[in-house]
Amino acid sequence: MTFFVVGLNHKTAPVELREQLAVNPSSLVGLTSELKLRGDLDEIVLLSTCNRVEIYATSSRKCNLANSLLQSLCAEHA
Would you write out the chain's pLDDT as a tens digit for each of its 78 residues? Predict the structure, then answer.
């Protein structure tokens, strides 16, 4: 099993990008479930605040999911 963390914050990304990835609290549970299914993840935690967005996840697959998960968040808002 692989554990990984991917995210960005006020030190690593401009506010415009953080706004694109921010998750509305009312859609947090649904979006987390979609990301879990889309990424074939075993477990996932999605954290979204005014200063950061982070995804903590585990997967039994060996692949690079980190960037694709962040891209999926951006696609949800496009």
Answer: 888 888 999 999 999 988 888 888 998 899 899 888 888 889 999 999 989 999 999 988 766 666 677 777 775 554
pTM of the model: 0.80
Q: Given 50, 60, 62, 78, which residue is catalytic? A: 50
- Residue 50 annotated among the catalytic residues of the structure: yes
* Domains of the chain, start order: 2-77 (3.30.460.30)
3-class SS of residue 3? strand
